[in-house]
Design a protein that fits this description.
About 45% of the residues lie in helices and about 0% in strands. By secondary structure, it is mostly helical. The protein has a domain of about 100 residues: Helix Hairpins.
Amino acid sequence: MPASLTLIIIMAALFACGVYAMLERSLTRVLIGFLLLGNAANLLLLIMLGAPGAAPFYGVDDVSDPLPQALMLTAIVITFGISAFLLALIYRSWQLGQADTVFDDEADIEVRERGIGPDVVMDDEGIEADAATDFVGTDTAPITVLHSSDVPALRDDAPTDTPRRAPRSDRGEDA
């Protein structure tokens, strides 16, 4: 059974509206956009499901594929969890500033104005061509490779699963 053109058009419209809404600065519109994207993803999984069939039991012919159904349930749970987080974020933002709009702070404005000019150049000096990491051959390397000759003999005093018996004097027995 080919996918319905109507479902494909609705799914594409939901994706487009969801992306457009998520690009706004209002957290409420971001939440609405995320919900639209979640529903579009569920519709995509529904389209991928294919022809309806019987429940996937042993010995039954013409069964439906259970994987898109499981993916759709997972998508619903993820959408619910992130929506709850966004609602808490919107509520906290409204409590603090009586608005849910995200504004640029000083650091964002500074980064936007600075840009990348000709004076900003990546420093490639000091990197060896055969080195796999920047820490090779330095004294402050975070990982030190030890060999068996570097470690003194270890005692085997690790705990075991067998319980140890207390001495006879502790058990109340005569010695």
